[in-house]
Amino acid sequence: MATTAVRGSLRILKRMPQLTYHCYSQCPRLPSTGSEGAFQIITPFGAAQQRHFRTTYRSNGQILPFKLSDIGEGIREVIVKEWYVKEGDKVSQFDSICEVQSDKASVTITSRYDGVIRKLYYGVEDTALVGTPLVDIETDRTQEGSPEEDVVETPAVSHQHTHQEIKGHKTQATPAVRRLAIENNIKLSEVVGTGKDGRILKEDILNFLAKQTGAILPYEGDQQVPTPAVRTTASVTSKPDKAPVTTYPTAAAPRPVFTGKDRTEPLKGIQKAMVKIMTAALKIPPFGYCDEVDLTQLVKLRMQLKGLAESRGVKLSYMPFFIKAASLGLLHFPMLNASVDEGCQNITYKASHNIGLAMDTPQGLIVPNVKSVQTLSVYDIAVELNRLQNLGASGQLGTADLTGGTFTLSNIGSIGGTYAKPVILPPEVAIGALGKMQVLPRFDAQGDIAKAHIMSVSWSADHRVVDGATMCRFSNLWRSYLENPASMVLDLK
Amino acid sequence: MITRTLCHMCLGTRSHTRWLTLRFHSTLTATFADGKAGTIIKSVSTNIFENLALEDWIHDNIDLQKRSILYLWRNTPTVVIGRHQNPWQECNLKLMTTMGMPLARRRSGGGTVFHDLGNINMTFFTSKKNYDRHRNLSVVTNALKTLRPGLDVQSTERFDILLNGQYKISGTAAKLGRSSAYHHCTLLCSADRSVLSSVLKSTYQGIKSNATPSVPSSVKNLFDEDPTLDSETIMTALASQYNMEFGFDSPIYAVDPGEEECWPGIQNMAQELQTWEWVYGRTPKFSVCTNFDVHGLSSSANITLNLDIKNGIIENCVMDMSTEWLPKNVSEEFGSFLKGCKFCPNEMAMLVAAFLRVTPLGEYSSRMYSLCENVIARV
């Protein structure tokens, strides 16, 4: 038994000369790892031998209790408020482990070691005593110094949980640098560290990448990672050279962040709502009908009225006109302002024209509606729209505004596009999508080419209760009101 | 006191690194390279998120082993809750929304406070070894007593400062990291007390939570005691006393927490502090149990609503009705529809609208609508 142990140790000693030196030079206080059951040899060489034998197996790493260090001011106990890790999680040195609170002071406890969390000694809201173990961490190589020592001073970037297993020799890098490496699929063991003690710095990663791709990387990607202050100078990188990057015309779109791996997450509240609505909408057999509208006259009218509306404190866009014209059309075609029940047995002709406006907000797609448009003037509608837009932008729309719609218009053209295939929102039976307004050449009444402001419109309707001819006639009426706004005056109620 | 405007500050404070950092960042002025042990800075911003982000930035990035910093800042009206508090329990969120008042959650512990320009905030940054809250508070009380010798201000065991033995004029909170710490406290100079008392009163009923509760106290402004005590005078006195107490001789530097060039990464930190996930989502698990009457066209019922909320998201929603006012399967379906929804009136309204669209309710539509309105009103 003893001979095989010695032979095994000698093999290991040959393979890891560094480790031998490490272990021998320390005064090791062997932490007890009860499960090992190995007996302790007192002589230094024997102790080192013992160490080596243990460390050949990765799973049989040392389990070190990480104690709650002194917080100061004579505080003896704290309340554990939040755990950032759970049993089985891998942690790196300087990662945040938990948050404790004592007497109006909130303390972030960071890990002293790299390893795997094996045991949490307290639950949330438990009282923890200073000096007692908080967690057990299983490490897969020997740690310097005694477990009771306080954590080293190099600052951690809080709230980042970067776990990267480092196989083989110990690689020093802060969590921010490790994350950058993970994001770019770089093994830290392949990067040459230029910091203190061979520590890998952010610049080392960037240089490594530059060599690989042959180009200087754009700086914007780094902006996500706050630069921690470190002792060595070269790592204080607040502004590396900005690379000449071609800018694409993505005005409002967020920059995609390439993380290199798939990400699955459950659908949250609002997304779930969208799924439910669209699944229900699938039951409706839609037909589409598209047309184009010449808004040249409307453009002139709006120019005249814009100033007047602003003097009353209201922004006047084209939407109030579109909405009012739709309502005037619905007076002649009440079929389109109707609702069918679940089994399509009964149809209800709604008295009130509550015209919904599809709105794109940070929370997702919502459809607030303007109530009783048949009783409102164009100016009233503009006021309502302003109110709904402000509430939508600040996330304050209530149930009253979001429910009760009978007909919907979607102004997708404000973002872009011409023709669309809008989905009917149950329990309605029709919807219209307005494309963008373009200045195009058209023949006028004299047969000459003239500038015209053209907008396309795409309608969808429930073919179970609406037929093509109805939709066509409604669209024509709506179009005629907009192409000749003066005619709206005759029919305004 | 000389107030110098700063554009750039450099990181790293060790003497052998200072020289190299200057070479690397040739545009940075060497304010922190002056080798001084104490620095006083004052924020030019009154945006709570920018100011809190600067606190975090200094805590994370500046080496405080041999240097201490005093940071003075004020904000436009806002409510700030402690790290582990429950905003629904602590303040009147509906009133704040109508007033356009933001809510912020700081990273230190402690209770809820109201900030406006009549309230001074000061943060004492030190190494963990030099962390001493009572000493910091003595700086405040001595500064005030030097300004007005007869003033009765005293710090307490709980790290408050009382005026005339009964009115709280200052509250404290602290944050400790691996090797450095900060202790910040407020000082009521001329805050709007009527707004303070109305926003700090929660209107929510039936909340059961383990979150750190605030201890309400009667407050008074220093301005009410002595009208010559305004914020600027007090801040200058605080800076002098700080220098005197710790043996420093720093002037007050004006800093802008919005400058990304000086504080790389600070914009992201300020953004993070404004996300719903941080402000509301960090609330410890809590439950709401409330009871109300709903009225239909010709009938009414009494409803008991039970909600379990974790990370600000509804985990469980159960409605008990006194009579079969709505079919049981409908109310159960509504309860499960709300699971996974943020405990936020806007998102709940959106989900309710979707529910009403897709669920065939027939004669129960108006009752369901009434129930939904009542539920959202209680958020």
TrEMBL record, chain A:
Residue ranges of the region described as Disordered: 231-263
CDD domains with a match to the protein in the record: lipoyl_domain (cd06849)
Main location: mitochondrion
Essential cofactor(s): (R)-lipoate
Reaction(s) this enzyme catalyzes, per UniProt: N(6)-[(R)-dihydrolipoyl]-L-lysyl-[protein] + 2-methylpropanoyl-CoA = N(6)-[(R)-S(8)-2-methylpropanoyldihydrolipoyl]-L-lysyl-[protein] + CoA
Keywords: Acetylation, Acyltransferase, Lipoyl, Mitochondrion, Phosphoprotein, Transferase, Transit peptide
Pfam families, A to Z: 2-oxoacid_dh, Biotin_lipoyl, E3_binding
Compartments (UniProt record): Mitochondrion matrix
Keyword Phosphoprotein: yes
InterPro entries reported in the protein's UniProt record: 2-oxoA_DH_lipoyl-BS, 2-oxoacid_DH_actylTfrase, 2-oxoacid_DH_E2_comp, Biotin_lipoyl, PSBD
Entry function: The branched-chain alpha-keto dehydrogenase complex catalyzes the overall conversion of alpha-keto acids to acyl-CoA and CO(2). It contains multiple copies of three enzymatic components: branched-chain alpha-keto acid decarboxylase (E1), lipoamide acyltransferase (E2) and lipoamide dehydrogenase (E3). Within this complex, the catalytic function of this enzyme is to accept, and to transfer to coenzyme A, acyl groups that are generated by the branched-chain alpha-keto acid decarboxylase component.
UniProt similarity note: Belongs to the 2-oxoacid dehydrogenase family.
Protein name: Dihydrolipoamide acetyltransferase component of pyruvate dehydrogenase complex
Organism of origin: Clupea harengus (Atlantic herring)
Organism placement in taxonomy: Eukaryota, Metazoa, Chordata, Craniata, Vertebrata
UniProtKB/TrEMBL annotation, chain B:
Reactions the enzyme catalyzes: (R)-lipoyl-5'-AMP + L-lysyl-[lipoyl-carrier protein] = N(6)-[(R)-lipoyl]-L-lysyl-[lipoyl-carrier protein] + AMP + 2 H(+); N(6)-[(R)-lipoyl]-L-lysyl-[glycine-cleavage complex H protein] + L-lysyl-[lipoyl-carrier protein] = L-lysyl-[glycine-cleavage complex H protein] + N(6)-[(R)-lipoyl]-L-lysyl-[lipoyl-carrier protein]
BPL/LPL catalytic domain boundaries: 64-250
Pathway: Protein modification; protein lipoylation via exogenous pathway; protein N(6)-(lipoyl)lysine from lipoate: step 2/2
MF term (GO), any: lipoyltransferase activity
Lineage top rank: taxon: Eukaryota
Entry's EC annotation: 2.3.1.200
CDD domains referenced in this protein's UniProt entry, alphabetically: LplA
GO cellular component assignments: mitochondrion
Keyword 4Fe-4S: no
Pfam families, sorted: LplA-B_cat
NCBIfam families in the record: lipoyltrans
PANTHER family documented for this protein: LIPOATE-PROTEIN LIGASE (PTHR12561), LIPOYLTRANSFERASE 1, MITOCHONDRIAL (PTHR12561:SF3)
Name used for this protein in its record: Lipoyl amidotransferase LIPT1, mitochondrial
